[in-house]
Amino acid sequence: MNGLRRVIPYPLLFLALLVMWLLMTQSLSLGQLLLGAVVALGGCWAMTALDPPPARLRRPAAAARLAGRVFVDVFRSNVAVGSIILGSEDRRTHAGFMRLKLDLKSPYGLAVLAIVLTCTPGTQWVRYDPATGLLLLHVLDLVDDKEWVRTIKGRYEGLLMEIFE
Amino acid sequence: MSVAILGWSITLAQVLLTLAMGCAALRFIRGPRAQDRIIGLDTFYVNAMLLLVTLGIRSGTTLYFEAALVIGLLGFVGTVALAKFLMRGEVIE
Amino acid sequence: MSAAPDLPLWAAILVSFFVVTGALVTLIGSIGLWRLPDFYARLHAPSLGATLGTGAMLVGSIICFSVLQQRPLIHEVLIGLFVTITTPVTLMLLASASLYRDRVEGNDAAPKEDPAPTEP
């Protein structure tokens, strides 16, 4: 196990790069497998030079639940933002900034949260201050800011803390 | 029958995407500020990428897939460089 | 003008549905780029095309090529992956760059001070 760790420092990254290579070449032949393994190995070794802080994915079940929630929310917020865009003039002027305090501290968890919040139309991650843990958001439909805090904390932050901390 | 359905719906999708590219280009031309132009450009290349995907479906070859991938990656790098430029006035610090 | 691959009827209808839906969502997002009043509101528009628009279009493409070549062909997933990871990065960079510029130039578009944190 330790010997394998030395050859492949990041097994998950290795697998991801290998799968990416096979998808790109659209084949499963032995030659492409070997070539992909070489490329993935190179990528892993390059990664050791960057020396990222160690990340551990704790609960795959929680990650799957988060993915499901994000999928549903992307769909719902697409419909919501679409109706705002096509709706009347006064619905488009409720946009505004808001700030909230995050309890999540893990950099990987914050990165995932940033991608999720920006990917769902209607919320936009603007700036996060790691010293105070305060996040500045821009929201397109800012009628009730408490509701947004409840959504973000309840739907995403708890699960992300479970996964990454 | 199925060829006609697919052919016409791909044509419809291409018209819609071209209109979308027109909207993005309009925002790019009108501005009013640099960041508005960049966001127009960003939307423009994503729409162009989707247009290539529809062309790929129409022709039935996976050749367009590579082109779409390259547009997606180059567009990303370009927008990041422009955003970086807005922030500090230089791309590499 | 209506040349297209010869798929079974069910696949043709499914692919048509996904392709047209994707194009329509993308168009709505781009219209938002035109109709929304200020820059920060416009930031929300491109993510429509980048999430649901791209997603639907790629699902259509995956179905089309998998039926056409009679084996699962899912390389379009790569485009989806790149777009979902790269679009948030550009939007976040643009948002923070624009906030920085607005504050330096003293524009009214951005608040001078950050708003007070909302308590849950």
Automatic annotation (TrEMBL), chain A:
Transmembrane segments: 7-24, 30-50, 108-126
Pfam families: MNHE (PF01899)
Statement: the UniProt record of this protein carries the keyword Membrane: yes
The UniProt record lists the keyword Cell membrane: yes
Membrane topology label: Multi-pass membrane protein
Keyword terms of this UniProt record: Cell membrane, Membrane, Transmembrane, Transmembrane helix
Origin: domain of life: Bacteria
Subcellular location per the Swiss-Prot or TrEMBL entry: Cell membrane
InterPro entries, per the entry: Cation_antiport_E
Similarity comment text for this entry: Belongs to the CPA3 antiporters (TC 2.A.63) subunit E family.
Listed NCBIfam families: PRK08965.1-4
Protein's name in the database: Multicomponent K+:H+ antiporter subunit E
Organism the protein comes from: Ancylobacter polymorphus
UniProtKB/TrEMBL annotation, chain B:
GO CC term (a single one): plasma membrane
Subcellular locations according to the entry: Cell membrane
One Pfam match: MrpF_PhaF
Keyword annotations from UniProtKB, A to Z: Antiport, Cell membrane, Ion transport, Membrane, Transmembrane, Transmembrane helix, Transport
TM stretches of this protein: 6-26, 38-57, 63-87
GO molecular function: sodium:proton antiporter activity
Topology term for the membrane: Multi-pass membrane protein
Family label: Belongs to the CPA3 antiporters (TC 2.A.63) subunit F family.
Protein name according to UniProt: K+/H+ antiporter subunit F
Organism this protein belongs to: Ancylobacter polymorphus
Automatic annotation (TrEMBL), chain C:
Pfam families: PhaG_MnhG_YufB
Entry keyword set: Membrane, Transmembrane, Transmembrane helix
InterPro entries assigned to the protein according to its UniProt record, in alphabetical order: PhaG_MnhG_YufB
Keyword Transmembrane helix included in the entry's annotation: yes
Keyword presence, Methyltransferase: no
Signal peptide: none
Residue intervals passing through the bilayer: 12-36, 48-68, 74-95
Name of this chain's protein: Multicomponent K+:H+ antiporter subunit G
